[in-house]
Specification:
Elements lengths: L2 H54 L5 E3 L9 E3 L8 E2 L11 E5 L2 E4 L2 E4 L3 H13 L6 E2 L8 E2 L1 E6 L5 H13 L4 E8 L10 H7 L6 H15 L4 H4 L10 H18 L6 H11 L8 E8 L14 E6 L4 H13 L3 E7 L1
Parallel strand pairs: 3-10, 4-9, 9-10, 11-13, 12-13
Antiparallel strand pairs: 1-2, 4-5, 5-6, 7-8, 10-11
Helix pairs in contact: 1-7, 2-3, 4-5, 5-8
Length: 340
């Protein structure tokens, strides 16, 4: 090979190598651009997800107790009842005694009774009425002008109307004067892929809420070593309240993820937000309060007389709840009744 040919060959190799280097650089640039685009999409989705979660608000647990050994209440999930769903905005449940009706069984705390066993239901409702979770406002007797004692009722969609009327009747005889009927509300955000350790920490009944929140924050920080800005600020005790702490996290979490180029555990971040809004305790709900009484108490001493709300005994709650909602919207005082 002549010298000129060798020079041309060498030049060709140099050009080829240069083109390869440029091509590889272009590939890296394209990959980096694709990664940045994907990260931006993830950050945008996270920002919207957190915003909707915060707008929907908090799910508060059921409190039972107090335990004799600790003299404090224990938080646990809401009653597992398939509720009727309404197209309404969610709202927090009153922090009072929760009684549920499902599968023809009435439950309060760790106690249960068949709806057909009225004596057992009476005992259960009296325990609910005597609970420190059940406030009594005013003075006098049930149905007196200055007496108010509410209860929260979780009623399964398949419960028969006759079962609902029995439950409400026994509630009035235990001294309750109003009932908050609970309904399910659909969330606008999907549940995140679970981060099991964070959920377990947030559900620990042995710890008080503040301790659970701090432990969950430590786990979030551990799962995101490449992005300390996500979890580290949460390790500090809140200056004012846990709500402010939570709001600060929602406001800056997406920005921290963007600053770390998405080198984070998104499932852990979402799960942490999920449990800080109490969504591991149960689904979103809304409640409607209605004043309740029975025929014996509605003796004419208080006017106007109570309104009778009646439906077929075997009709399910899913088909009859509208009667109660209508009366609740009209602020009516009611007696629930059945007809064949």
């Amino acid at each position: 090979m002549s010298r000129g040919a060798r020079v041309l060959t060498l030049a060709g190799l140099v050009v080829g190598l240069a083109l390869a280097v440029v091509g590889a650089a272009n590939v890296r640039v394209a990959e980096r651009a694709a990664d940045e685009e994907l990260c931006a999409a993830r950050v945008g989705e996270l920002r919207l997800w957190l915003h909707v979660l915060a707008q929907e608000g908090e799910v508060r647990p059921e409190s039972v107790g107090p335990e004799p050994s600790t003299e404090r209440y224990v938080d646990r999930p809401l009653p597992r009842v398939a509720l009727v769903q309404l197209r309404e905005a969610p709202s927090p449940l009153p922090a009072i005694a929760f009684v549920s009706l499902g599968g023809s069984t009435v439950r309060f705390g760790d106690s249960s009774a068949s709806i057909d066993d009225r004596d057992a239901v009476d005992r259960l409702m009296k325990r609910a009425g005597a609970s420190a979770l059940t406030p009594t406002f005013g003075f006098g007797r049930p149905d007196a002008f200055m007496f108010h004692q509410p209860v929260v009722l979780f009623v399964a969609a398949e419960a028969r109307w006759s079962e609902v009327t029995t439950l409400v009747d026994r509630a009035t005889r235990a001294g309750f004067t109003s009932a908050y009927f609970v309904f399910a509300v659909k969330s606008g955000v999907p549940a995140p892929p679970p981060s099991p350790r964070i959920v377990a920490i947030a559900s620990d009944p042995r710890e008080v809420p503040y301790a659970r929140e701090q432990a969950a924050a430590r786990e979030l920080a551990r799962l995101n070593p490449a992005c300390p800005g996500v979890g580290a600020p949460l390790l500090e005790a809140p200056r004012w309240s846990g709500d402010a702490h939570r709001a600060a996290f929602v406001a800056r979490a997406a920005d921290e993820v963007a600053a770390c180029n998405c080198r984070v555990d998104l499932a852990a971040i979402k799960t942490f937000a999920w449990v800080r809004f109490g969504r591991h305790w149960g689904s979103l709900t809304v409640s409607h309060e209605i004043e309740i009484t029975n025929a014996d108490r509605d003796d004419g001493s208080r006017l106007p007389r109570a309104e009778e709300v009646a439906a077929p005994a075997d009709k399910p709650w899913s088909e009859t709840h509208a009667f109660v909602l209508d009366a609740a919207n009209r602020k009516a005082r009611v007696i629930l009744a059945t007809y064949p």
